Amino acid sequence: MLNSRNFRGKPNIAQGLDSCAAPSGPWVSLLWLSLSLVAASGGCASAPKGPYHLELKGAQDSSYEVLTDYYTHNIVRSFADSQLVREKTEIGRFQVRTEVLPALLLPSDSGEVSTPPSGNVDMLPALETLIHYRLRTLTKEGPLRLNDLGFPDVGEELDYIFTPQAEVLRVGDIPPSSHFYVPPLPLPDRPVGPGDTWELNHHWFSESGLPLKLQVIAIFNTLVSCPPWGWCADLDISGDLDIPGLDRQSLRFESLIQGRMLFALEKGLLLWSEVHSHEETLTQEEHQQSLSCLVGQVQKNSCPPPQCRPKELGGLPACLVGEKK
Questions:
Q1: How many structural domains is the chain composed of?
Q2: 11 closest CA partner among 180, 172, 243, 190
Q3: What is the pLDDT of residues 43-90, one digit of tens each?
Q4: In a domain, 116, yes or no
Q5: Which of 101, 127, 160, 235 is the most exposed place for a label (fewest CB within 10 A)?
């Protein structure tokens, strides 16, 4: 998911499968978050013709579960008179189990999803298909506050309701103004192909009530084979986090976000993402720098555990991709 801390929380001013043969020939991943999901599918096929629909998809018949491994690396530095006076590094890993449930329907009478106590959603006359994920964090290593990243904490289970374009409509009983509602990845509202770009803009409030604005530009870089999941869009993202209404005479805040994503077309799933953020906060008394990265990767036998280093954005994981189209 655009699943990075700086997408979702408040800024620090407040605190064994072989590749398939692909035809030769002639896109910075988010946050978050981001929600890496996958279902096994058999065989490989020739690349589909574009333009392509990049959208989340629910389970076809019965629900299925997938496991995603995450790794995060954060560095916070404080300066006084241009001299480094304090540095703190946090590294952590966590594993999330995602249950992909059959698609829901948006009731036309109320505009809200109706979920009875049994957990089944009433299939009323629909305006739109909705995507239903149920997440549970299984393990955690390191001093991580997973809720700050938009994930459930260890042992906690949360239901996420999305539109096919990854707009978050509901997360458990959490209010919509929360960072949990930051979209996990930028998806276009139209068919796209290599070279196309689109934007994601989202507003929310930090826990202290600070207004925040995320702006991300996504680029469809190329199409790559990603056995056994078929074909994937290789996406680049870049953007920043802003604080609307900030008094820039007393406080200066700068932000840079970069990343890359691998999105499976047929399954409508994010297989891998790596997001890096760089924040600078300057007041008359203090200068603080925050560097972070978050990488998420679906489990596959041939893949080593994911890792990242702030400001060192890597390439696509070789264990997940085959050849480019």
A1: 1
A2: 243
A3: 345 788 889 999 999 998 889 998 999 999 999 999 988 889 999 999
A4: no
A5: 127
Tens digit of each residue's pLDDT (9 = 90 or more) over 263-286 = 999 999 999 999 999 999 998 888
Helix (H, G, I), strand (E, B) or coil at 179: helix
Range of the domain at 192: 5-43+52-110+123-298
Backbone angles phi, psi at 228, to 5 degrees: -95, 20
Please tell me what DSSP assigns to residue 146: G
What's the CA gap between 258 and 100, in Å, rounded? 28
Q: Which residues contact 296 (CB under 8 A, 6 or more apart)?
A: 1, 3, 33, 34, 36, 68, 69, 70, 270, 272, 273, 306
Rounded CA-CA distance 55/194 in Å is 16
CA distance to 202, 278, 281, per residue, from 12 (Å): 19, 11, 8
Q: For residue 149, give the 3-state DSSP assignment.
A: helix
Q: Which two tokens stand for residue 233?
A: 């869009």
Contact 41, 266 (CB under 8 A): yes
Does residue 304 lie within any of the structural domains? no
- The predicted structure's pLDDT at residue 322: 82
Strands 83-107 and 64-80: antiparallel
Judge whether 214 lies within some domain: yes
Residue with tokens 């680029």: 219
Report CA 51 to chain centroid distance, whole Å.
Answer: 23
CA angle centred on 273, ends 152 and 15, rounded to 5°: 50
Q: What is the mean pLDDT of the chain?
A: 82
- φ/ψ of 83, rounded to 5, equals -110, 135
Residue 320 lies in a domain: no
Q: What is the pTM of this model?
A: 0.81
Q: What is residue 70's three-state secondary structure?
A: strand
Nearest Cα neighbor of 3 from 46, 37, 26, 27 is 37
